[in-house]
Amino acid sequence: MKTHIILISLFLGIVGQINAQNFWTEIERPVDKPVYAMAVTNTNTVYLGMGMDSGVFVSLNENYNWDLHGLDGLSVYSLHIDPNGIVLAGTGGEIYMLAEVENSWELIFDSIYNVVALSSDFDGNIYASYAGIIKTTDYGNNWEQVFSLIGTNQWVTDIFCQEYGVIYAGIISFMTDAGGVYRSFDYGETWEYAGLSGYYIKTLACDSNGNLYAGSAGNYGIGIYRSQDQGLTWTGLKNDVFVESIVITPDDHIYIGCSNEYGTQGGVFASTDYGDTWEMINTGLNNENVYGLSYAPNGYLYAYGNHLHRSQNPVCSKIETQTNSNQEFMVFPNPVTDYLQIKSQTNPRGTGSVTVKMVDMYGRLVCSENNYISNSRIDVSGLDDGGYLLLIEAENKRFEQRIIKLSNEQILR
């Protein structure tokens, strides 16, 4: 059985700033320089990308005994760990990859622009900001310019990849009505405008229902915005802070890191209701000018800038997520035309709490049933033909299975 780990947030019990203990604890930085970027591996190795030509520092097993890990003499603006565990670093003109064997940095792209955004999808493609966006399918042996902003006075500040080739780009253009959010549905081959023109979009994220969130730090508006239709329309959620970073945990608790450089409240805010309400969680935060947030696989939350802080406790706990390869649940028929049935092999009477969800190829929630009863029917006749991901949550486990929806006409062919 293929097994991997997903993190689900614990209830934090945040009530304003009234806490029994500080939310944050400060961690000493390796040098007295700003932290520009951060990444944490599945084995809890912490990488810091430092500003002011200070390179990369590393700490094993979160012991925070820092060692210089190369790229000294360079400012590191972005760090990213791809699904295969490869560490990438963007500097003031280059992209580096951490070689597994030598554990040293290999130059894979040489440019003239600061590489402030790095991202990757689950198909092995890597995307980076460079006068727009460049893409490699072979870890830097070949690069392709898939989105060009040359000569437009616009800069890509963030790249967010979903499944099935859906990619979003955050763009800023100083003192103009350009920029905003752009999207691609074909792995970056073509792009289209997706709203918030004139906003300084610094950060992007999506929740498990496919809702898109954008953080703005100026021009036409500041704050965090949500789109429930992939950028066709936007709703302002909190419009009195300069948002530099967004982190969304797998059960959709949202954290925003905010700057206080322009007189607004800085620090970190949290929402447990998809951004409808917010609470400030700054207790223990000794510097409220937050450049970025980072979410570690073991459930801790980090805030960084001219400081480095970690949440006192994990904001998430681990539960096991499995593919349904051993048929703990019988899912039939598959392909399906009208009605889908799910039967528990270990609990055939269907007692206990079971939640069933289906998401489409764009990550959008298309079907959800709480307290599902084993062997009852789910009507999928109204869904478009194509592939879907079925998610079954039961007894602190989560099972995944691919489903094919076909019309009756296709079945008869």
Walkthrough of the structure:
Helices cover 1% and strands 48% of the residues. With 413 residues, the chain is an all-beta fold. The strands form 9 sheets. Strands 1-30-37-36-33-34 form a 6-stranded mixed sheet, with no helix packed on it. It is globular, with a radius of gyration of 22 Å.
Please provide a brief summary of the model:
With 413 residues, the chain is an all-beta fold. Helix content is 1%, strand content 48%. It has one helix at residues 408-412, and strands spanning 3-9, 24-26, 35-40, 46-50, 56-59, 67-68, 76-81, 87-91, 94-98, 105-110, 118-120, 126-129, 132-136, 144-148, 155-161, 167-172, 180-184, 192-193, 199-206, 212-219, 221-227, 235-238, 242-248, 254-259, 267-271, 279-280, 290-295, 301-305, 308-311, 316-323, 329-332, 339-344, 354-359, 365-369, 377-379, 386-394, 397-405.
Write the layout of secondary structure elements.
Elements: E1 3-9, E2 24-26, E3 35-40, E4 46-50, E5 56-59, E6 67-68, E7 76-81, E8 87-91, E9 94-98, E10 105-110, E11 118-120, E12 126-129, E13 132-136, E14 144-148, E15 155-161, E16 167-172, E17 180-184, E18 192-193, E19 199-206, E20 212-219, E21 221-227, E22 235-238, E23 242-248, E24 254-259, E25 267-271, E26 279-280, E27 290-295, E28 301-305, E29 308-311, E30 316-323, E31 329-332, E32 339-344, E33 354-359, E34 365-369, E35 377-379, E36 386-394, E37 397-405, H1 408-412
Parallel strand pairs: 30-37
Antiparallel strand pairs: 1-30, 2-29, 3-4, 4-5, 5-6, 7-8, 8-9, 9-10, 11-12, 12-13, 13-14, 15-16, 16-17, 17-18, 19-20, 20-21, 21-22, 23-24, 24-25, 25-26, 27-28, 28-29, 31-32, 32-35, 33-34, 33-36, 36-37
